[in-house]
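Predict the holo structure. Ligand: copper (II) ion.
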Amino acid sequence: MIGLDRRLSDEASIHPETTDMQTKLLAAALGLALATPFIALATPFIAQAAPPPVQVIEMQVTGAGFVPDQIKVTKGQKVRLVVTRKTERTCATEIVIKDQGINQKLPLDKAVTVEFTPSKSGQLRYACGMDMISGVIVVE
Ligand SMILES: [Cu+2]
């Protein structure tokens, strides 16, 4: 009879600890559940605070062709080419970047903006309409 009493009291002393542990876990879960909407609300503000950088590259068309005729850009970041044709003595009166579906007229002495975001590394060609005068964009 004494043995049984002891077992019961042992159980009683273990049980409150378990309950306490469960309460703590529940409180932690509840705390996370309450915090989640605030994290979700805060995220767009963080995204707005750090917009992805745009890679701006100035380019000219001269008697020598596209200047520069080789550029390096980073994959996944928007590229903005600002192209100005400075001469009439060229057949490069447009810039064609076939792999990006770009074909843009280049009026004389007018800065023309061409934008795209390279999604994979490798080389992109830019050229005149006849694919004679050209340059290479190295995407890394
Ligand atoms: Cu040409």
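Residues 75 and 120 are 6 Å apart (CA to CA). Helices lie at 2-49.
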